[in-house]
Amino acid sequence: MKNRNWFWGLFFLLSAIFVILSQVWFFHGISITSILASVFLAAIAISSLLRLEYFGTFIPLSILYIIYSKPIKLFYISPWLLISSALLISISFSLLFPKRKKNKVHFYYSAEQINQVSENIDNNNPYVKVSLNSASKYVHSEDLQGGQFISNLGVLDVYFDQVKLSSNGAKLFIDCNLGSINLYIPKDWKLVEDIHSYLGEVSYHNDHTNLSGNAPKVTLTGKVVLGDVKIFYI
User: Less Cβ crowding at N or C end of the chain, within 10 Å?
Assistant: First the structure.
């Protein structure tokens, strides 16, 4: 942790110097907004690379190439072609070099691995993965503790109306890449959302009441890349 703080401290210090020099010395053709966006994109790319999250690495790099292609006279590549290539490279690296799960995070997988839809939803740690497909899943649990829900180029609807939470609450991991995940959550659950979005969106739908501190707590973590996660209160 200490080494990590040193790294990011130096990164943002050098970024501040870069922002100042870019306005008084070079890169006169680039606005201050683009300079600040560059720092933000570089931070996302580095952070994602350290976590082996390839969509968050190659897409920001492609946008950086677009920003600086004219000022430093790089070879011209169509922006749409560049971003499309970054997406394909990200998918390729995700398949060739999959991210290893940390030992302290436990999810329960079904024995049968299916290419398009994999699932294990009838326990206290459900797992559902959709790839190039769409699916609707109803979770059944008397003591929900956690879960993992993945959509790669697919649409996944998950219903929690037949679920009782663990007394300690539950932690759900969301991984949405070029797809959509719709979560149907009971109104009396207290949500804590910590999903990282990279050119994606997390949105809430339907009204819900103000909940007390004793309400069942669910924490949403994970990422959404060029997709959307929708939370519906039912």
Answer: N
Start-to-end C-alpha separation, the chain: 40
- Structurally, how many domains does the chain consist of? 2
Query: 0.70 exceeded by the pTM?
Result: no
Spatial separation of the C-alpha atoms in residues 156 and 135, rounded to whole Å: 5
Helical ranges in the chain per DSSP H: 2-24, 32-50, 55-68, 79-96
Please, are residues 160 and 126 in contact by the beta-carbon 8 Å criterion?
A: no
156 and 214 both lie in a single domain:
yes
Kindly report, residue by residue over 182-216, the tens digit of the pLDDT: 999 988 888 888 898 877 788 888 766 555 566 67
Query: Is residue 30 situated within a structural domain?
Result: yes
CB 63 within 8 Å of CB 34: no
**Domain limits for position 71:** 2-96
Q: Is residue 232 within 8 Å of residue 208, measured between CB atoms?
A: no
Residues 6 or more apart whose CB falls under 8 angstroms from that of 64 comprise 38, 41, 42, 45
Give domain status of residue 53, yes or no: yes
Angle, to 10 degrees, between the axis of helix 32-50 and the axis of helix 2-24? 160
Question: Which residues are registered as beta bridge partners of 135?
Answer: 156
